[in-house]
Amino acid sequence: MEIDAKVTVLLDERGMRIEIMDANSGVRFCKVRMNPKATCAAMGRLAHTPGKADVRDLDKVGKYLIFKPLVFEIPDCESWDKERHELAVKEAERLCPAGWEADKSFNSQDSFWMADGKCMAKTTIRAYVGKKEHAEWKTEREKNGW
Fold first, then answer.
1. What is the average pLDDT value for the chain, to the nearest integer?
2. Is the overall model pTM greater than 0.70, yes or no?
3. What is the pLDDT of residues 95-126, one digit of tens each?
């Protein structure tokens, strides 16, 4: 599989770090660390230089990140912030469609408000999808003004 990638190379006294990110999904899926000795060898064009690699989220590589708002009612606005936050996280997880992940921070000024006597909450949900679903999402986003 070929992807559009963004690569960062960092050099310092501890050696070299290389980070690779999928440009479409925004996922940094590979971080390579090399000690100073290995860094010098690699910079001197030695092939197969040893290093340590942290590889993760490969299931998201080659996909597109999409997002949309999730607005819902929570049962109690009178509770303290921590309790209200916990209620909102549980409700967001319950309402989040399969294959989507809800943001659990609720730290924005407009995360909670009252509407028609009801306590409302808002968060962002995210999913990683293929090219076709991404095109459909772009159309929906333009239509709904997200």
1. 93
2. yes
3. 999 999 999 999 888 898 889 988 899 999 99
Strand order across the 15-22 sheet: 5-12, 15-22, 28-34, 52-55
Question: φ, ψ for residue 101 (rounded to 5)?
Answer: -125, 130
> Could you count the other beta carbons within 10 Å of the beta carbon of residue 111?
16
**Separation between Cα atoms, residue 143 and residue 28, nearest integer Å:** 30
Domain boundaries, the chain: 5-60, 64-144
> How far is 11 from 34, CA to CA, in rounded Å?
10
Provide DSSP, 12-81. Answer: ETTEEEEEEEETTT--EEEEEEE-HHHHHHHHTT-SS---EEEE--GGGTTSEEEEEEEEEEES-SSS-H
CA-angle at 129, arms to 109 and 24, nearest 5°? 80
Do the beta carbons of residue 19 and residue 4 sit within 8 Å? no
DSSP H stretches of helix in 66-130:
81-95
The answer, yes or no, to whether residue 30 has pLDDT greater than 90, is yes
Q: What's the rounded mean pLDDT across residues 42-61?
A: 96
Two tokens at 53?
Answer: 């690699």
Query: Mind listing the pLDDT tens digit for each residue in 78-95?
Result: 666 778 888 999 999 999
